[in-house]
């Protein structure tokens, strides 16, 4: 199982190194989205800590959907073919490998987004450092859910619009928890109760993914 | 042991019966040809044998496994498929693709050099799959089957996109697989002549 997970991670990252989708498509999208939403919210004239954390997570959610949608559309044309299905890869290993590879890619983009949000909304480096663990866990939660829904939306005959439709409602509690923890970090208030929700969701969504990812391929 | 037994098998896709009561038995390992026109159900028959599609009604056993969810998984594990697509990522090289497939299926990587040599792709091992021609992609798919050594080879129009040398290569590979005790089932709508054919079925209208 571990060798399969490692092989899937290697393949995903090697493909990224060659195609540079993260560098030339996803990261620029995330940066533009953050700047545009920041300008639209006129962050200079309102309390930055009121809108900043929420906007950061709105951008990260759409970035997650973009990356997952792109991954599964690419896989639909090659790795979801009958020939690939015949490899009979262990579903749990395929899920974990994809989640780990994608989560690391998303964390790279998140690092850029958070750094720019610091400049845009005047978050201090120290507060972002305090928020970093919660941001990491939130991104892992989004990825565990997103990969599961990405596989569902990539089944033959499904529309590409299905992914955001089924993913966004499930993302909501994760985004709320992440946003509350980021707000708490930049305002120096405690919000420890949201940690429980984030960790619970990691366990629940991760468990569901490990159990069901292979089954989705059979549908 | 009977390799495959299909009795009155019906398979539907989007409520349309792509196989409509087909029966066929493969008693012994060997080379078998499925003939039929475009849309006759040749590929659908192969997909059932591969455990890729569930049957709507009828009875089906392949390699001793009934084609329920568990049985289909086991059939896929023991079968090899060569279709119009290939199980390869366009951004990876020939060697990287085979290496990945061998890792996730626990096939010894040491077989790669011989497999690439047999399909005459050794010089292309560092070429990314997207730069291969259709015929070379087909050869890459064959190389993977040679590496995997499945009990049941399912080849969907394997001669398509191949030149004369490529077709001869397919025939040689089929002969070697059968000599090794495997069963090879291939579809064709061409007048393909194999050096050995142990059985044949003509599919018309999914029957």
What brief labels describe this structure?
heterodimer; A: 219 residues; mainly alpha; B: 207 residues; alpha/beta; Rossmann fold; five-stranded parallel beta sheet; four-stranded antiparallel beta sheet; 6 helices; 33% helix
Structure report:
- The complex is a heterodimer of chains A (219) and B (207).
- Chain A has 219 residues and is an all-alpha fold.
- Chain A has one domain.
- Chain A is 84% helix and 0% strand.
- In chain A, helix 2 packs antiparallel against helix 3.
- The two termini of chain A are 23 Å apart.
- Chain B has 207 residues and is α/β, with parallel strands linked by helices.
- Helices cover 33% and strands 26% of the residues of chain B.
- Chain B contains six helices and nine strands.
- In chain B, strands 6-7-8-3-9 form a five-stranded parallel β-sheet, with helices on both faces.
- In chain B, helix 3 packs parallel to helix 5 and helix 5 packs parallel to helix 6.
- The interface between A and B is medium-sized, with 25 and 30 residues.
Brief overview, please?
The complex is a heterodimer of chains A (219) and B (207). Chain A has 219 residues and is an all-alpha fold.
Succession of helices and strands of chain B:
EEEHEEHEHHHEHEE
- Tell me roughly what share of residues is in helical segments of chain A: over 70%
Q: How many E-type strands of chain B?
A: 9
Computed Rg of chain A:
18 Å
Cα distance, first to last residue of chain B? 25 Å
Assign the CATH superfamily of chain B: P-loop containing nucleotide triphosphate hydrolases
For the sheet with most strands of chain A, the description reads: none
Q: How much is the average pLDDT of chain A?
A: 85
Q: Determine the strand fraction of chain B and express it as a percent band.
A: 25-35%
**In CATH's first tier, which class of chain B applies?**
Alpha Beta
Number of strands of chain A: 0
Helical/strand content category of chain B: alpha/beta
**Second CATH tier, the architecture of chain B:** 3-Layer(aba) Sandwich
Number of domains of chain A: 1
């Amino acid at each position: 199982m571990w060798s399969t997970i490692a092989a899937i991670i290697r393949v995903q990252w090697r493909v990224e190194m060659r195609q540079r989708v993260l560098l030339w498509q996803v990261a620029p999208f995330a940066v533009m989205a953050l700047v545009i939403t920041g300008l639209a919210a006129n962050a200079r004239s309102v309390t930055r800590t009121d809108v900043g954390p929420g906007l950061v997570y709105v951008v990260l959610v759409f970035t997650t959907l973009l990356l997952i949608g792109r991954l599964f559309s690419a896989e639909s044309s090659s790795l979801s073919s009958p020939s690939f299905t015949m490899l009979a890869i262990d579903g749990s290993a395929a899920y974990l490998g994809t989640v780990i590879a994608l989560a690391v890619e998303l964390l790279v983009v998140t690092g850029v987004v958070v750094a720019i949000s610091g400049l845009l909304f005047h978050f201090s480096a120290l507060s972002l450092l305090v928020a970093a663990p919660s941001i990491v866990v939130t991104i892992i939660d989004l990825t565990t859910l997103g990969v599961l829904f990405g596989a569902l939306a990539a089944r033959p005959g499904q529309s590409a619009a299905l992914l955001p439709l089924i993913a966004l409602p499930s993302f909501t509690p994760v985004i709320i928890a992440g946003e509350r923890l980021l707000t708490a970090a930049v305002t120096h208030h405690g919000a420890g109760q949201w940690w429980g929700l984030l960790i619970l969701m990691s366990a629940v969504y991760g468990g569901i993914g490990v159990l069901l990812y292979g089954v989705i391929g059979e549908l | 042991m009977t390799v495959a037994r299909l009795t009155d098998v019906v398979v539907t896709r989007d409520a349309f019966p792509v196989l409509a009561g087909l029966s066929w038995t493969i008693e012994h390992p060997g080379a078998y040809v499925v003939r039929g026109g475009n849309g006759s159900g040749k590929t659908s028959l192969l997909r059932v044998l591969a455990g890729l599609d569930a049957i709507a009604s009828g009875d089906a056993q392949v390699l001793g496994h009934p084609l329920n969810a568990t049985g289909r998984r086991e059939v896929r594990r023991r079968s090899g498929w060569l279709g119009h697509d290939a199980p390869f990522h366009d951004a990876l090289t020939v060697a990287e693709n085979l290496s990945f497939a061998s890792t996730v299926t626990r096939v010894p990587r040491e077989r790669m050099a011989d497999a690439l040599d047999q399909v005459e792709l050794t010089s292309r091992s560092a070429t990314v799959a997207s730069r291969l021609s259709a015929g070379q992609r087909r050869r890459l798919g064959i190389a993977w089957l040679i590496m995997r050594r499945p009990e049941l080879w399912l080849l969907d129009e394997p001669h398509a996109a191949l030149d004369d040398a490529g077709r001869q290569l397919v025939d040689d590979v089929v002969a070697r697989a059968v000599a090794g005790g495997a069963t090879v089932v291939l579809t064709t709508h061409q007048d393909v002549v194999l050096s050995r054919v142990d059985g044949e079925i003509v599919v018309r209208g999914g029957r």
